[in-house]
Protein backbone atom coordinates (compact mmCIF):
# COMPACT_ATOMS: atom_id res chain seq x y z
CA UNK A 1 0.00 0.00 0.00
CA UNK A 2 2.77 2.42 -0.88
CA UNK A 3 1.62 5.97 -1.33
CA UNK A 4 4.81 7.18 -2.96
CA UNK A 5 6.39 4.25 -4.80
CA UNK A 6 9.13 2.75 -2.63
CA UNK A 7 8.00 4.70 0.46
CA UNK A 8 5.63 1.92 1.54
CA UNK A 9 6.25 2.65 5.24
CA UNK A 10 4.50 6.03 5.05
CA UNK A 11 0.93 6.34 6.31
CA UNK A 12 -1.78 8.77 5.29
CA UNK A 13 -4.33 10.23 7.68
CA UNK A 14 -7.81 9.21 6.55
CA UNK A 15 -9.32 12.42 7.93
CA UNK A 16 -7.07 15.10 6.38
CA UNK A 17 -4.56 13.41 4.08
CA UNK A 18 -1.45 14.29 6.10
CA UNK A 19 1.34 11.80 5.36
CA UNK A 20 3.34 10.50 8.33
CA UNK A 21 6.34 8.21 8.54
CA UNK A 22 5.03 5.61 11.01
CA UNK A 23 1.99 4.45 12.97
CA UNK A 24 3.09 6.12 16.22
CA UNK A 25 3.29 9.53 14.52
CA UNK A 26 -0.11 8.90 12.91
CA UNK A 27 -1.58 8.08 16.33
CA UNK A 28 -0.17 11.29 17.87
CA UNK A 29 -1.32 13.32 14.85
CA UNK A 30 -4.87 11.99 15.26
CA UNK A 31 -4.87 12.80 18.97
CA UNK A 32 -3.72 16.38 18.45
CA UNK A 33 -5.41 17.28 15.17
CA UNK A 34 -8.68 15.37 15.26
CA UNK A 35 -9.48 14.28 18.82
CA UNK A 36 -11.82 16.84 20.36
CA UNK A 37 -11.82 15.08 23.73
CA UNK A 38 -9.46 16.62 26.26
CA UNK A 39 -7.55 14.64 28.87
CA UNK A 40 -8.14 16.18 32.31
CA UNK A 41 -5.96 16.01 35.41
CA UNK A 42 -8.04 14.67 38.33
CA UNK A 43 -5.91 16.61 40.82
CA UNK A 44 -5.90 20.16 39.44
CA UNK A 45 -8.36 20.08 36.52
CA UNK A 46 -5.88 21.16 33.83
CA UNK A 47 -6.80 19.84 30.39
CA UNK A 48 -4.39 18.35 27.84
CA UNK A 49 -4.65 17.38 24.18
CA UNK A 50 -3.04 13.95 24.63
CA UNK A 51 -2.67 11.27 27.27
CA UNK A 52 1.10 11.62 26.94
CA UNK A 53 0.96 15.31 27.91
CA UNK A 54 -1.27 14.44 30.88
CA UNK A 55 1.09 11.66 31.96
CA UNK A 56 4.06 14.05 31.95
CA UNK A 57 2.03 16.65 33.88
CA UNK A 58 0.99 14.15 36.57
CA UNK A 59 4.63 13.59 37.57
CA UNK A 60 4.78 17.14 38.98
CA UNK A 61 1.15 17.86 39.88
CA UNK A 62 0.37 18.09 43.58
UniProtKB/TrEMBL annotation:
Signal peptide: none annotated. Residues 11-39 form the C2H2-type domain. Pfam families: zf-C2H2, zf-C2H2_4. This is C2H2-type domain-containing protein. It comes from the Archaea. It comes from Nitrosopumilus zosterae.
